Amino acid sequence: MKRRTLLGGTIAVVMLGLTSGAVAQQPPIKIGMSMPQTGGLAGGGKASLLGIEIWRDDVNAKGGLLGRKVELVVYDDKSSASETPAIYSKLIDVDKVDLLFAPYATVPTAPIMPMVKQRGLLLIGNFSFQVNSKVGHDMWFNNAPWGPPDSWAASFLDLGQKAGGKTIALLAADQEFAQNLAKTAREVATKRNMQVVFDQAYPPNTVEFSSIIRALKAAKPDIVYVASYPPDSAGILRAVNEIGIGDNVKIFGGGMVGLQFGAVMENLGSLLNGVVNYNSWLPEKSMYFDGTKTFFETYAKRAVAAKVDPLGYYLAPFGYASGQLVEQAIKAVGSLDQKAIAKYLRENEHKTIVGPIAFSADGERKETAVLQAQFRGVVDKNIEQFRTSGKQVILFPEKLKSGDLISPFEAARK
Amino acid sequence: MFSFELLLDAVVIGVLLGCFYAAVSLGLSVSFGLLDVPHVAHPAFLVLASYAVFFLNEHYGVDPLLAGLMITPFFFLFGLAAYRLYYETFEKRGSDAGVRGIAFFFGIAFIIEVLIILQFGVDQRSVTATYVGKAWRIGDMRIPFRLVVAFGVAAALTILLTLYLSRTYMGRAIRAVAQDQEALRLMGANPIRIKQWAFGIATAVLGIAGALLIIVAPVEPTLDRTYIGRTFCVVVMAGLGSMSGTLVAAIILGVAETIVLTLFGASWAPAISFAMLLGVLAVRPQGLFGRLS
């Protein structure tokens, strides 16, 4: 009798479990990653993570994936490349996560690529630049809008050429990322028979840019392509404002890192006017897709509490989009089989809050969606102004365009 | 691409930049040059002063230079406390204090960096003032006002410190303690108190130098690392403890840097300070304006 009761009870519990309590009893789907939360990349890392967290909360509110809740396992990599291999080993072997997201930026991502390839794991990239070009991992998908490596420089030089530019000056920081940009710009310029009249790499600890800008001005270029890092971007723009750059310059900027972050933009204020620079997302009409507006409403509220970039345009929506990519793939495949998810991601176009995303064989975007936008009518010390459209007018790509280039540069600065 | 105009421009900007280097090195010329304290936290103190100036400018609209003057008394007290801590924990204990002192000051520098990050975050900060972002036009040449301000402040600081060290009782005592601490003790003076006072003066100077730092360029918490090499280079090249020497050495460095930057390429510029330092030490081990002891 007792045994029968026990058996009956067990069956009842199991049945109950299979019907109503399924979500509660299944273990969560764990997505593991490291993220720079201290160190030089922390500003971007924190904003990116907040984007991913907003996606997690949204997807869990809708009942999770495959009937399971989504959980993030996140460690701080301190912006350091030496931290990430150990963190990802732990995520894979100890935490036994189901899926991996890469940390923000190139430097912390590069050292984990061989390991991820060797173990045959899917990795969603987070704004790294060309980390898979030599590794050739076929389960790598980058959320960044870069596209083919030369499209970044090509789009900027295109705009310059259309404005009548024939000669080019290159000013790049002496570090890998900026040098990669300068290299592609040099190649594109050669292909188009554009003469490079000034080509300098400045050391990362340069204090004063007056002399460099003076020498650049003396070379009388039509197009000035700058690949700089945040501390230098401010120094360069200040020197340009004081020394002047010459009336013949049609277009200035291109690859200046830092001008995408709220605090830096607020600091620079009117010095930004006229600069044409790369970006990933901007509050122009053409940039709103299904869910974008709702995302930024949530982000704006949570950014205050999280003390991260109040604008969050550059990285946060792409963090959310990473989540959307795996969400759609898992739903379509119906399992967590990483090979099947990778196959789905490679073969289909995916709807995200940053627009449709399709991947080429190397895991980068099929088509570039890097924006080239011109700062206009920016005033000093006002971060709220950047939330309105028209402050950064999109000139490229054609289908997202929201205005035309004002040239020459000196005219656009007024 | 050589032209006389560019060369002239490089020299003028170089002199002004050199004056800025002098202003940020003068404090170190006292603390390291005269007192033999291995003060590697000097640039961290400098960045801390910049953030204090930023705070006053951002929240109360105080002019950066005035803010620099306002914080000098606090930096003087901070210097007194820092030296006392250093003396009690390291210098008092013996001959290897120098090496361990470096560790002590590195520790202080890291603590300052972390405190700044906790309070102000990792973003760059800058100040607003009428002389920031404008330039003075002479023919084709344009000279940024912020560098002209650096020139004026550096000149004033050098004159004041030189007069203080040569004309006042306390100033002469500081030079005496630099020469022979034991002799001073035999005369009944307390060398430690004099050194503490001098360290306070050296730190107070950083208040104004910190204001210059944030006037010349935006600051971020780890900026001190950029200045460790340059400031020590200037002080050693000048000949330890010479104020006017510091100004001249910094100007030489500034001019050399901008000429290389303008005419030969930016990549070579950082090597210049150390190449010149090695050159000077090979020919004149006591530095350009130092005296052989």
From TrEMBL, chain A:
Keyword Signal among UniProt keywords: yes
Pfam families xref list: Peripla_BP_6
Keyword Aminoacyl-tRNA synthetase annotated: no
Keywords from the named record: Amino-acid transport, Signal, Transport
UniProt GO BP: amino acid transport
Signal peptide (from-to): 1-24
Residue ranges of domain Leucine-binding protein in the record: 28-374
Annotated family: Belongs to the leucine-binding protein family.
Protein name: Amino acid ABC transporter substrate-binding protein
The organism's taxonomic lineage, starting at the top: Bacteria, Pseudomonadati, Pseudomonadota, Alphaproteobacteria, Hyphomicrobiales
TrEMBL record, chain B:
An annotated GO BP: amino acid transport
UniProt topology in membrane: Multi-pass membrane protein
Protein's cellular compartments: Cell membrane
The keyword Cytoplasm is assigned to this record: no
Sequence intervals crossing the membrane: 7-28, 40-57, 64-86, 98-122, 143-165, 197-219, 231-253, 259-283
A GO term for molecular function: transmembrane transporter activity
Keywords: Amino-acid transport, Cell membrane, Membrane, Transmembrane, Transmembrane helix, Transport
GO terms for cellular component: plasma membrane
Coiled-coil residue spans: none
Family: Belongs to the binding-protein-dependent transport system permease family. LivHM subfamily.
Record's protein name: Branched-chain amino acid ABC transporter permease
Taxonomic classification: Bacteria, Pseudomonadati, Pseudomonadota, Alphaproteobacteria, Hyphomicrobiales
